[in-house]
Design brief:
Layout (H helix, E strand, L loop, with lengths): L5 H27 L9 H10 L4 H23 L5 H22 L12 H5 L1 H18 L14
Length: about 160
């Protein structure tokens, strides 16, 4: 099944937006308090790489747009209600892209080795959170056919 209806596409954007907001709400305080071992949020680092020094809200906007767009693209590719394994695979692929492509772009080196190897391991947490939230938001907005309740069902 693909996102062949405008309503399905809108739901996919909604899934992406929910995931973006919730992951940002969880991870932003980790960066603000210095708990995260990264020098700054990757979205902030990427925004500054492209635009030079920018205010924190710009990094947050990059995060919201990126997560919403990527989640929508994944759903457009695999269709609504992907299996938990498809979501886990997408989350793992996004982690790999982050540590192999984006980390070097922002100057942290491959796997964050230019800063600390802890970065690659720490980046696993947000990607696991992404997968869990992706699954839950997808099940919420793309309910099983004939379902009238808010249960999340299987898969």
């Amino acid at each position: 099944m693909t996102l062949d209806q405008p309503r399905d596409f809108a739901k996919a954007v909604g899934v992406g937006a929910i995931v973006a907001v919730l992951t940002g709400a969880v991870t932003a305080p980790l960066f603000k308090t210095g708990i995260a071992p990264m020098p700054q949020a990757p979205s902030q680092a990427f925004a500054e790489t492209l635009l030079g020094p920018v205010a924190d809200p710009v990094g947050l906007i990059f995060h919201l747009l990126y997560v919403t767009a990527v989640t929508t693209l994944i759903l457009a590719f695999v269709g609504p209600r992907p299996s938990k394994w498809a979501i886990a695979g997408a989350s793992a692929a996004l982690w790999a892209i982050a540590v192999v492509v984006f980390f070097p772009i922002v100057g942290w080196g491959i796997f964050g080795a230019a800063v600390t190897p802890k970065i690659a391991v720490a980046a696993l947490g947000p990607h696991v959170l992404y997968g869990v939230l992706f699954w839950a938001a997808d099940r919420l907005l793309f309910r099983a056919p004939g379902s009238t309740d808010c249960t999340f069902g299987r898969a």
